[in-house]
């Protein structure tokens, strides 16, 4: 099965449609599939439900899809760095489903594992639990959360081989591995593309069975979301 495509546009061909659900890996600007996100923008697809920890920043990452108003709903944990996001939400243009960060991660992992729902103590007695089933186990109260599964996942990896096996680097790993398993189709952008057998099997985090299409992004940007420095001694 040919998995390697020449560019993001061709890798996404035939996969995008209006009102679809997309998972996008990354945390802030770390490990985001920036090239694939820009190709989604260029496609003009609209009415999207996007599952991502946050929405990047203005004009970067998922922020570009907010600028073009292609996103209808975000399922996220933290969105405080994006002024466009806040403006659209407060203006009633954007729907948000907030999740505690650990709950969001587990909802995605559960979706990839075929688990339709699970119970957690996180959010009990708060707005997070409103409208959800609540149940007691061993004298403790838990709220039910549904697993998440998407039409498409776009992820970013440090290394990958032509069979789709992926290796992530340090904190850029974040949400990418779980999202890679929780969609009908996963498309990965990788910084270094190698041949089968060149990756140490013990280092592979996402097995190639989850990845259907790959592009090589050798010059991936390394953006800094917030630069914090101290004065020299």
UniProtKB/TrEMBL annotation:
Superkingdom in the source lineage: Bacteria
Keywords: Transferase
GO molecular function: CoA-transferase activity
The keyword Transferase is assigned to this record: yes
Pfam families documented for this protein: CoA_trans
Identification of the protein by name: Succinyl-CoA:3-ketoacid-CoA transferase
């Amino acid at each position: 099965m040919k998995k390697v495509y020449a560019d993001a546009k061709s890798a996404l061909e035939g996969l995008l449609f209006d009102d679809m659900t997309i998972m996008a890996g990354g945390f802030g600007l770390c490990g985001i599939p920036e090239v694939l996100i820009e190709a989604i923008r260029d496609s003009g697809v609209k009415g999207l439900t996007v599952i991502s920890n946050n929405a990047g920043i203005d004009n970067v990452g998922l922020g570009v899809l907010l600028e073009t108003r292609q996103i209808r709903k975000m399922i996220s944990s933290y969105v405080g760095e994006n002024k466009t996001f806040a403006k659209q939400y407060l203006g009633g243009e954007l729907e948000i489903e907030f999740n505690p960060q650990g709950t969001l991660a587990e909802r995605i992992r559960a979706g990839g594992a075929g688990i339709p729902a699970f119970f957690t103590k996180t959010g009990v007695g708060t707005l997070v639990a409103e409208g959800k089933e609540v149940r007691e186990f061993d004298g403790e109260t838990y709220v039910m959360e549904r697993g998440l599964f998407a039409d498409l996942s776009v992820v970013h990896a440090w290394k990958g081989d032509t069979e789709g096996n992926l290796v992530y680097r340090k904190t850029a790993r974040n949400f990418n591995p779980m999202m890679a398993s929780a969609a009908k189709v996963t498309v990965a952008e990788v910084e270094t593309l190698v041949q089968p057998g060149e990756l140490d099997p013990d280092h592979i985090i996402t097995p190639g069975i989850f990845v259907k299409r790959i592009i090589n992004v050798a010059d991936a940007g390394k953006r800094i979301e917030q630069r914090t420095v101290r004065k020299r001694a």
